[in-house]
């Protein structure tokens, strides 16, 4: 039996075929129109042009961050080949469309983290078991969360996961403190000292947590992976050329205790005020006497004679 297409599907098919002609969706309501359009663009059999994802994120950034869409979550976790070309392509094509990114167990290194500066709507970032990154990555992320000019940076980053990343140490704690929008932080299995982290982070407004926000991270990304999304884009999406890097072996996480923190940003962070330095009184200028005036005159005369 032949299925007769609806007018709705005909319109969406036309949009998908001509997405390169769409430059803005301003004024189009996100619910239900744009949200339904996203589902149709990704799930229909018509090839997807990634340019429309950039248009959607430019016109409806706030809505993308506020709704729970599986299509805005990208999971590169444990990909066999290098993920660098695909991540670079996403960073150039439609970075603002992604709100959750999982890049654990990959070949990404500290110097690759600058690719994330274009992911301005990113809320969740997960590095679990990525053994190629160190404290430098944390310093870069802190910098990107603070420097958000020119349409770049990570102003909305709320959750960070560094579980079982051995390159993360106590040096990273000062960078976490700088990320004022961070609500959840997981440092289980790192080289961060438990006592030091608990003392320092609680002074910054964090509380020790045993429950992760919303769902478990693994369940959060089950519907969104490389095969179902990025690799379904047009053939020219990922640039030619693969990079071979060593992906280190995974860590046995069964016996490692949790080290996780949460923070309620609705409450003001109370910090101890440093004692004020004593006020410096202005130095009273001494009254000039006759000999002082004579010395000034002699100095002026000496300068005139040289000229």
From TrEMBL:
Protein name: Uncharacterized protein
Highest taxon above the source species: Eukaryota
InterPro entries: LRR_dom_sf
């Amino acid at each position: 039996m032949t299925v007769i297409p609806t007018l709705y599907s005909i319109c969406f098919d036309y949009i998908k075929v001509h997405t390169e002609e769409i430059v803005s969706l301003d004024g189009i309501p996100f619910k239900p129109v744009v949200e339904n359009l996203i589902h149709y663009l990704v799930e229909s059999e018509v090839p997807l042009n990634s340019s429309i994802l950039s248009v959607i994120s430019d016109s409806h950034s706030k809505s993308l961050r506020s709704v729970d869409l599986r299509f805005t979550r990208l999971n590169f976790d444990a990909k066999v080949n290098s993920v660098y070309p695909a991540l670079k392509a996403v960073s150039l094509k439609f970075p603002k469309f992604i709100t959750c990114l999982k890049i654990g167990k990959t070949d990404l290194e500290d110097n690759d983290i600058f690719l994330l500066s274009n992911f301005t709507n990113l809320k969740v970032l997960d590095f679990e078991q990525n053994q190629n990154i160190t404290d430098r990555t944390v310093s870069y992320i802190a910098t990107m969360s603070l420097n958000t000019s020119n349409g770049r940076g990570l102003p909305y980053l709320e959750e960070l996961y560094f579980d079982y990343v051995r390159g993360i140490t106590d040096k990273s704690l000062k960078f976490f403190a700088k990320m004022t929008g961070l609500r959840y932080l997981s440092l289980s299995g790192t080289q961060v000292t438990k006592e030091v982290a608990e003392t320092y982070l609680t002074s910054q407004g964090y509380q020790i947590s045993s429950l992760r926000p919303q769902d478990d991270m693994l369940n959060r990304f089950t519907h969104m992976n490389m095969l179902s999304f990025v690799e379904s884009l047009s053939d020219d999406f990922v640039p030619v050329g693969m990079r071979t890097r060593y992906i280190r072996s995974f860590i046995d996480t069964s016996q490692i205790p949790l080290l996780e923190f949460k923070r309620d940003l609705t409450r003001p962070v109370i910090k101890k005020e440093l004692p004020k330095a004593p006020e410096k009184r202005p130095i009273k200028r001494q009254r000039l006497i006759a000999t002082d005036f004579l010395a000034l005159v002699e100095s002026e005369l000496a300068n005139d004679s040289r000229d």
